[in-house]
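#struct-help
A.M.: can someone run this one for me? Single chain, 362 residues.
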Amino acid sequence: MFRECIRIHGPVLAAILLVSACNDDSGPVVPSWEEFVTASTVEFEGRRIYIVDFDTPVSLDELRTEYDHLYGGASADGLGSSEQSSTVNRVNGQDDVWSAMGARNLRYCVSNEFGVNQNRAINEMAQATAAWEALAGVDYHYVPDQNGNCTGANQTVTFAVRPWDGGGACAFFPSGDACVARTLVMNFAAFTAGPITSLGVFRHELGHTLGLRHEHIRAPNPSCTEGVDWRGVTAYDSASVMHYPQCRGSTNIGDLNITALDANGIATLYPGIPPAPAECFFNWASANYPTLFAPARPATQVGSGYVFRYYSTTDAFLGVSLADQHVHYMGPGLGHRSAGAAPARTWGTVLPARSCIELRGC
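D.P.: on it. Structure tokens below:
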């Protein structure tokens, strides 16, 4: 009788499944070193990148160490074990995080190389960044006028968001360790089926840009392991956005979503006041209703008794009244063409701001 033995290894979530037919008595078939190298290699702009644990770049020597760890000393079930645990990356004994000022000025572009997928990348990045911003003292700023020169070499932005043909996605840490320097790369084609979405992966990869490491290495007898230079910030979270569902210990059977422990951890690393509730609500609205509120993040203004944003592409206003704290909307949906005029008498009341904002976690 035969059973299917599956070990997942390679670029993020992605997507190389090393599947072999195993006799119940013989144990799993171990890939050769050459097969392992091939499965772990991504070519990007003439550069060869070796990736382990789905989105962690390593040198060839480190890749060999990973191979020996996984297949040189397998446990009875064919899975290596480790006692390592942590959440935040560490460099020279210090947490790998942005300075307080740097964390408030994380500027990014979304490359025109995405082509027909560019709007998708823009909208999903807006949603994913808003999710982290609502929890801690961090601010991401989309810089669309840099989309035509959107690379990690562009010093106008903190990082670039670009497409690639590698399996899945990959990002970087604040210290600079990356698959591609100062770049978050995404292959939408890797997330066309199953519960894991590209939006969930953006949330995961942005966690790396804030210094978070993979949570699954903290599972008891973990099947997915990494280096040892990390620090635990909260208790182990089997449902964390940073925990791969296919790694041992996971209780997540859906998309990659930020949990309460994730929220506590990022607030510990980046203490401070999240964006003002009105701005948090505006970010949520434009991320979830881009057909009504575009571009995603215009400047917040104060005038005529409102805190508001004007969305020039959709010719609409969204604001919070300073008088009654109600959320108001004005735009084509009410039959009124605002053409950028300051809000006056034609606002439509939507909902008391406090209850609306609390519903959205701001």
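A.M.: thanks! The helical segments are 33-39, 60-72, 100-103, 118-133, 198-209, 260-269, 277-288, 353-359.
D.P.: also worth noting: The chain has eight helices and 18 strands.
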